[in-house]
TrEMBL record:
Recorded GO MF terms: DNA binding; DNA-directed RNA polymerase activity; protein dimerization activity
Residues annotated as transmembrane: none
Family: Belongs to the archaeal Rpo3/eukaryotic RPB3 RNA polymerase subunit family.
Region (Disordered): 290-410
Keywords: DNA-directed RNA polymerase, Nucleus, Transcription
Name recorded for this polypeptide: DNA-directed RNA polymerase II subunit RPB3
Length: 410
């Protein structure tokens, strides 16, 4: 066992364009798993979000086609800076900063042939073209466009003969597909099509010394369960050493595979960044006095209740909140919300999730409407509906009533 204050170590075993295999040491199991989940669900990419079907005489129904289009990975390099969420944009509906238009226009005129409609036939409409979605809105001088790579928003592998295109539909003579698509920035917490990863997995304790796994076997578990490759990295268990029930895993064998929208390296970096941001917001939220004159104070008061209040729902302001927080913050001040979520009243969980799926009154984590964690319910300001932790009325952590796009979902 390593000492618990040892520095985390990352050792890259294999790095390819779309996959990376590395060993992560001296971190907690919970950290390794948070890292995995953040890479899967919290890194923004671009994906087709709206489809306008002009003609569809193929054998597949419109919905089917729309779904298949949504699942096509689009080049999303530096998506964080190169594109805005529509909800954060200054435009009315969509513009070149928050939307990319793609068109597909294919018809088969040849007899006795089956034509394949593939992702390579999707054409990105240049934003400066008159009449395109990108041009009708005012230009507010954003820097996003300058940060885009040349093929930003294009289907992956479009210009690469070594990458086989993605089949959308097959057509025969007389059949046609003509659609207009709007691609948007999003994260996989809202829809899996925005995930940059096709798979993220990790293994720890390949010898099962910690006994976190119970093997099913006929006669002999060791003979019937061959060891993984990672077992070579660790000492085999010795029969003369007693079982250490206090032992914790410290070494994690991680494998990240992307769908091509982002490179593996970018996914890992962005994943760490995102996790850091989340933890920074948590620390900020637990600070006794939130900074003045910023977005954290917006949305005061109403609704209340996500994580606030005492477990018994009492509103006695003489009591401290459950988590040892100093007494009253400004009543109703929403200590949790990071600035970018503060705008939308219906904010989903923790700022990073899209507001439009946040649901009406959903007071998730970091919703501007939520009362601060553990703070007293603040007299009458945030009373009423404010249920405590574990109360069925609460909309927060672990509550069955939670419908928002929060941490517990998906
Ligand atoms: Zn816009």
């Amino acid at each position: 066992m390593q000492s618990s204050d040892a520095e985390p170590i990352v050792r890259i075993r294999d790095l390819k364009k779309n996959s990376v295999n590395f060993v992560l040491e001296n971190v907690d199991l919970s950290f390794a798993n948070s890292f995995r989940r953040v890479m899967i669900a919290d890194i923004p990419t671009v994906a087709i979000d709206m489809v306008e079907i002009e003609t569809n005489t193929t054998v597949l129904p419109d919905e089917f086609i729309a779904h298949r289009l949504g699942m096509i990975p689009l080049v999303s390099t530096m998506c964080d800076e190169a594109m805005r969420y529509t909800r954060d944009c200054t435009c009315e509906v969509r513009c070149q900063y928050c939307a990319i238009e793609l068109q597909l226009n294919v018809a088969c005129h040849e007899a006795n042939t089956t034509m394949h409609i593939t992702s390579n036939m999707l054409e990105v409409v240049p934003t400066n073209k008159p009449g395109s979605y990108g041009s009708y809105d005012t230009d507010d001088g954003g820097e996003e466009l300058a940060k885009r790579v040349e093929n930003f928003g294009h289907p992956i592998g479009k210009d690469d003969p070594d990458v086989p295109p993605i089949l959308i539909c097959k057509i025969r003579m007389g059949q046609e597909l003509r659609v207009r698509c709007i691609a948007k920035k999003g994260i996989a917490k809202e829809h899996a099509k925005w995930s940059p990863c096709s798979a993220v997995a990790f293994e720890y304790d390949p010898h099962n010394k910690l006994r976190h796994t119970s093997y099913w076997y006929e006669y002999d578990a060791r003979a019937e369960w061959p060891l993984s490759e990672n077992a070579k990295e660790e000492d085999p268990p010795r029969d003369d050493v007693p079982f250490d029930y206090n032992a914790k895993p410290t070494k994690f064998y991680m494998e990240v595979e992307t769908d091509g929208s982002l490179g593996a390296q970018e996914v890992v970096h962005k994943g760490l960044q995102e996790l850091q941001t989340k933890l920074a917001n948590l620390i900020l939220g637990l600070k006794p006095e939130p900074p003045e004159n910023d977005a954290f104070q917006s949305g005061a008061g109403a609704g209340g209740g996500a994580l606030g209040g005492q477990p018994n729902g009492a509103h006695d302001s003489s009591q401290l909140g459950g988590w040892g927080m100093p007494p009253p913050m400004a009543s109703g001040g929403s200590a949790w919300s990071p600035p970018r979520a503060a705008g939308g009243a219906a904010g989903g969980a923790w700022g990073s999730s899209p507001a439009r799926t946040g649901g009406g009154g959903g007071g998730g984590w970091g919703s501007p409407a939520a009362a601060p964690w553990g703070a007293p319910a603040g007299g009458s300001a945030a009373s009423g509906s404010s249920g405590g932790w574990g109360s069925p009325a609460a909309q927060g952590w672990g509550s069955p009533a939670q419908q928002t796009n929060g941490w517990n979902v998906g």
